[in-house]
Amino acid sequence: MSFTVVIDAGHGGNDAGAIGHVLKLKEKDLNLCVAQRLADKIRQHYPDVNVVMTRTTDVFLPLQQRADIVNKNHADLFISIHTNAAENRKACGAETFILGTDRMEDNLDVAMRENAVMKLETDQTVYQGFDPNSIESYIIFELMQNQYMDNSLVFAELVQKQFVGTLQRANRGVRQAAFWVLLQSACPSVLVEMGFISNAEEEKWLASEAGKNGIVNGIFNAFENYYKR
Ligand SMILES: [Zn+2]
Fold it and tell me: What is the CA(82)–ligand 1 centre distance, in A?
């Protein structure tokens, strides 16, 4: 059985995700660009690895469908690519998330923002009453069993090491948060917040070829280390 990695470009279509203030860079476009280049690079270097993308064009894709793709393909690793944003325009740096409830309250804002995508979907029934904007809803994350935590953490730390070491980004660390897309994915999974599109300097870096290729190479190196383990 070959190793399957699912690469998810967050957002898409009428869901732009976060938008930069200076260049008006859209999260959905940056996520897709990085995801596509990462997929290409893994395919190039590891033709035996089955690389699946959740989307390859600018389309809207429900949150649950992304996890369904992971599970249908019996993925061994799931990488969801996102870009951060904050009211505080000085906020900057990279953070890599795994599913978990350690200091969940601290990371509730980012989880709520990424989960709120489901509100744009026409069919809410798959979410079984989960309201991404209600703190009470997040109790389900406290109740879960996460058998993929150890391997998720191994990969997340490899990714974060690349952002901080090679790419010299501000280190916001490996964190735990309540992301629906990770909860529903039955394999080691991480959600990468590459940087803050809301920070003028970082938006410029994210938009640059050096920035994008640096991130692609970084996540690729992390994948290589994890895969070869
Ligand atoms: Zn996002």
Answer: 4
- Ligand 1 mean position, distance from CA 197 (Å): 10
pLDDT per residue over 170-223, tens digit each? Answer: 999 999 999 999 999 999 999 999 999 999 999 999 999 999 999 999 999 999
Q: Is there a contact between 53 and 35 (Cβ–Cβ < 8 Å)?
A: yes
Residue 85 CA to ligand 1 centre (angstroms): 9
Residues 6+ apart with CB under 8 A from 211: 195, 204, 205
pTM: 0.96
Report the separation in Å between the CA atom of 108 and the middle of ligand 1, taken as the mean of its atom positions. 14
Question: How does DSSP classify residue 47?
Answer: T
106 alpha carbon – ligand 1 mean position (Å): 17
CATH at residue 40: 3.40.630.40
Interval between CA 18 and ligand 1 midpoint (Å):
7
Let me know how long the chain is.
229
Q: Read off the tokens for 15.
A: 């869901």
- The total domain count for the chain is 1
Strand (E) or helix (H) holding 110 = helix 108-115
Q: To which H or E segment does residue 211 belong?
A: helix 209-228
Between the CA of 1 and the centroid of ligand 1 the distance, in Å, is: 32
pLDDT tens for each residue of 164-176: 999 999 999 999 9
Q: Residue 67 is part of which domain span?
A: 4-228
Of 96, 98, 134, residue with least CA distance to 115: 134
**CA 50/CA 179 separation, integer angstroms:** 25
Q: How does strand 171-177 pair with strand 77-84? A: unpaired
